[in-house]
Design goal:
heterotrimer; A mainly alpha; B alpha+beta; C mainly alpha; A: mainly alpha; Four Helix Bundle (Hemerythrin (Met), subunit A); 0% strand; C: mainly alpha; plastoquinone (chain C)
């Protein structure tokens, strides 16, 4: 065993322990913020394992998307909706954890049999790390074209949905009707949004007035 | 479509304008970098206070007649005048006098109204102590004369901006006898008499 | 192109000549560039802090640090010593683990990103194939550390600052990545060394600034926002949030934040240099100079001069950019949070997308000039 293999083995062991440990932490911690932070640990360890598999681009993308975007969004959601609530002790509270444990164990057994049964046909030739991006690109535009496009359509749908939610085209009537001028206390009045066509002459008016000054 | 394009054009114009304003601001900042620093390295260099500077108050014990005018004109009745009536000479006999400079606002009313001129302003301004009660000066402390900045061998005296020649902003490295801008008071008097 | 000096090869070879086995020689070599880079980054930070103080002073007609060492050069060192000896306070009712982990998570990716900064053709820690993409990914880890320390401080200003920092770095990462993408599209590679090579050959006229002026501006603005520099320093806005997520920190933990922010600034400047200002290339190509002076391109001392010139050029360009950042700090007032997000999402994002589109079109139209 030379140096490289030794390093690989040791780092695999460290990454595996880190991943399983933090994954258990995600599930078992009662403080949801800890779970969210440990999730980042899981993602980082997964990307380390990708790195050991010579998939450097996937590893980097894993960090960028899962740690940098998904996990930060989860944390954002937790911290913005941090409502303290006293939980009443439920009767038969043990039922839920038990059910979850049974389902998880079943899933684990299923997956491990799948891992053991599948005849893994992995090629031993190592891919040069310089060409991984090119290879991924070629696969995206040939045999994995449909999943790629489907994923992009899915993301587009999510984006459109988010924009519709954020823009809120349908304003409630009370803002538009002039007789209901009085706003509830401590809220900012929602400004009626200008459509693309209307606002252009307004800006030109502003420009004129600015020039005349 | 045209309107949209016009909007895009307006937006681009505004962005360019904003960029130009930022560039203008940057050039101003850059210009400032080339100017000489106006810093006065305080303990080593000090500005010479002007003639009518209102610094720490000086008190002459022997001149005081304990009339308490200073207390009455003071906005907060600050000076403490401790006197005793001497029946033999039928005069007030001053025992102690003190002013707390931690409370004084250096308005100069007491100096203005003192009938015997026993109060006067000095040019001392660095009244720093470790305890605010040390700023409560008694008649001995009030009677001390401050060091003149120009006499202190440790200090390079610097002139204030008003006393510099026209167009000069830095008091450093000025020749000793350069005249400040404008006329001196005695010259003004001379002019008046003509 | 000359191949430059192969430091690694000659180092390992000399060790093998000394009688070490080849594997051990390689193992001895491995930490050397990393340690060198760490030291370089730290020294770079000290210089930047000094520069910031002096330039800020000059912009306000002050003198700045003067008595600590010649021209106050030792003032950042004095700062460092002070931080080491300060009491390390963990506030009551805070979360001690997350409180300690926060600054570490902020510092680590910044120093890791120095992996990809090249100072010469063979003067980089590694030539990673994913290059600049690695930097973008690593810099996206930072907001987690900020959120962590904001949450752990048990202070509402800290939490607000942490949330602001995370929001800011998420929204400015996208224009940043898109600006990088346009450059990558021209050089056909993510590797920072390839990106510089693609700009070489024509001296100052080959640099990417001329081909990507919009991208350059977008990248520099977003990089300043990522570093939380002055016009975008909302997360630590003193007037509103005390010091944001840094409020409760003191001693070494605060020093980690302080170092991270300056290392990040230097790193961003270095990356702008690599992506847009031709990296280690001098404004007049050195081959041309050698040709004028009649020196053979392969003479050994020319290669040494080339390498040292490369390092000097990279550092000079980076520090010029740091200088503009400091100047900008005293020129532009801080933006509001809504203006910040408006600028990121409604201005920089569409403009960078348009820039990407334009680059693609130009690449198809003029493959010779835009790296077909």
């Amino acid at each position: 065993m030379n140096l490289a293999e030794g390093v690989q083995l040791v780092s695999f062991a460290i990454l595996a322990v880190m991943m399983i440990g933090s994954a258990l932490g995600v599930v078992l911690f009662s403080n949801i913020v800890y779970s969210a932070f440990l999730l980042a640990g899981v993602f980082v360890s997964i990307s380390g394992i990708y790195l050991l598999l010579n998939a450097d681009f996937v590893a980097t993308a894993q960090i960028l998307i899962y740690v940098g975007a998904v996990n930060v969004l989860i944390l954002f959601a937790i911290m913005l909706v941090n409502k303290r609530e006293d939980f009443k002790p439920l009767p038969n509270a043990w039922v839920r954890p038990t059910m979850t444990a049974i389902v998880s164990a079943g899933l684990f057994v299923l997956l491990s049999t799948m891992v053991l049964v599948t005849p893994w046909a992995y090629s031993t030739e190592s891919v040069s790390s310089d060409t991984t991006i090119v290879l991924i690109g070629q696969h995206f535009f040939s045999d994995f074209l449909l999943p790629f496009e489907l994923a992009s359509v899915l993301l587009l749908m999510a984006m459109v949905g988010a924009i519709i939610l954020a823009r809120r085209e349908f304003l409630p009537d009370q803002v538009i009707t002039p007789d209901k001028q009085q706003q509830p206390v401590l809220t900012l009045p929602e400004r009626p949004r200008e459509l693309v066509g209307i606002s252009s002459d307004k800006t030109s008016n502003l420009d004129d007035s600015r020039r005349s000054e | 479509m045209l309107k949209f394009l016009k909007q895009v054009g307006d937006y681009a114009k505004e962005a360019v304008q904003a960029g130009r304003y930022i560039g203008q601001g940057l050039s101003v900042t850059f210009d400032h970098m080339q100017r000489r620093p106006v810093t006065v390295q305080y303990p080593y260099e000090k500005l010479i206070p002007s003639e009518r500077f209102r610094g720490r108050i000086h008190f002459e014990f022997d001149k005081c007649i304990s009339c308490e005018v200073c207390v009455r004109v003071c906005p907060i009745n600050l000076p403490v005048v401790d006197w005793e009536f001497d029946k033999a000479s039928k005069k007030k006999n001053l025992k102690h006098y003190s002013i707390d400079f931690g409370v004084c606002i250096f308005c100069g009313n007491c100096v203005e109204y003192c009938p015997t001129n026993c109060l006067s302003m000095t040019e001392e301004y660095d009244l720093c102590t470790y305890d605010r009660h040390q700023l409560n000066y008694d008649n001995v402390a009030l009677g001390r004369l401050p060091y003149k900045v120009t006499d202190d061998p440790m200090v390079t005296p610097l002139r204030e901006l008003v006393y510099l020649p026209k167009g000069v902003t830095s008091p450093h490295d000025l020749p000793a006898n350069t005249r400040g801008a404008g006329l001196h008071p005695e010259e003004l008097v001379e002019q008046q008499e003509k | 192109m000359t191949t430059g000096i192969d430091l690694q090869g000659s180092f390992i070879k000399s060790l093998i000549d000394l009688g070490l086995p080849a594997g051990a020689a390689k193992a001895v070599w491995m930490p050397v560039p990393m340690v060198l880079m760490l030291i370089g980054a730290t020294v770079g930070v000290l210089v930047t802090i000094w520069q910031e103080r002096k330039i800020s002073a000059a912009a306000q007609q002050r003198i700045g640090p003067e008595f600590m060492g010649p021209f106050g050069l030792l003032s950042p060192v004095a700062d460092g010593i002070k931080f080491v000896f300060k009491e390390d306070i963990i506030p009551a009712k805070s979360d001690p683990w997350l409180f300690t982990l926060g600054p570490i998570i902020v510092v680590l990716p910044v120093f890791l990103s120095y992996l990809i900064v090249p100072f010469g053709e063979n003067l980089a820690v590694t030539n990673v194939a994913t290059g600049v993409f690695l930097w973008i990914a690593l810099s996206s880890v930072q907001p987690i550390g900020l959120l962590m320390s904001g949450y752990a401080s048990n202070n509402k200003y800290s939490l607000l600052g942490g949330l602001r920092a995370a929001a800011q770095s998420i929204s400015y990462e996208i224009p940043l990545a898109l600006a990088v993408l346009a450059v990558v599209m021209m050089s056909n590679s993510l590797s920072s060394i390839d990106i510089v090579e693609q700009q070489s050959g024509y001296g100052i006229f080959g640099w990417n600034v001329w081909r990507q002026p919009i991208g350059f501006l977008i990248f520099w603005i977003s990089a300043l926002a990522e570093c939380e520099r002055m016009p975008f320093d909302l997360p630590e806005a003193e007037e509103e949030l005390v010091a944001g997520y840094q409020t409760e920190y003191s001693g070494m933990k605060f020093a980690l934040y302080y170092v991270a922010s300056y290392v990040n600034l230097v790193l961003s400047a270095l990356l702008v240099t690599v992506l847009y200002l031709g990296g280690w290339e001098s404004p007049i190509p050195i081959e041309l100079l050698a040709g004028w002076l009649g020196i053979s391109e392969t003479s050994p001392w020319l290669e040494i001069a080339d390498a040292s010139l490369g390092i000097t050029m990279t550092v000079l360009k980076a520090y010029f950019l740091v200088f503009t950042a400091i100047l900008l700090r005293w020129t532009v007032p801080r933006v509001r949070i809504d203006q910040l997000l408006d600028l990121g999402w409604k201005f920089l994002l569409p403009v960078s997308l348009a820039n990407l589109l334009l680059t693609a079109a130009l690449k198809l139209a003029f493959p010779a000039a835009f790296g077909g």
